[in-house]
Design a protein that fits this description.
single chain; Rossmann fold; two-stranded parallel sheet; 2 strands; PGM_Phosphatase; His_PPase_superfam; Phosphoglycerate mutase
Length: 113
């Protein structure tokens, strides 16, 4: 039987988005905070992960950084899966603020997807 362990990325450094005025997919380039890196190192010590055979990661920086730490600590290869990602609220890739992201999310909810 195949087992999957789903691990969420460590804490991202979201304030970089506002600092650099990142837009669209650029907003997904933020790295982990120091606390986020430490979260991943602690996660890598989970006994269940000793049985893992491969790490599958989304292409987002926060996920890849998490996967890289796990890969180093567990001695596993990483496969990047482009379809492993969050809902994309702005297919124009032009949103540039948390306010615009909230507006898009509210529109999604109001129209049931």
């Amino acid at each position: 039987m195949t087992q999957f362990y789903l691990i969420r990325h460590g804490e991202p450094e979201w304030n970089i988005n506002e600092q650099y005025k990142l837009k669209g997919h650029g907003r997904d380039l933020v790295p982990l905070t120091e606390a986020g890196v430490n979260q991943v190192y602690r996660t890598a010590k989970d006994e269940r992960l000793k049985e893992a055979e491969v790490i599958i990661s989304s292409p987002y920086t926060r996920a890849l950084q998490t996967a890289a730490i796990l890969s180093k600590e567990l001695g596993l290869d990483i496969k990047v899966e482009l379809d492993l990602r969050e809902w994309q609220p702005d297919l124009t890739f032009e949103y540039d603020s948390l306010e615009r992201l909230a507006e898009l999310g509210n529109d999604y909810d109001a129209n049931h997807g």
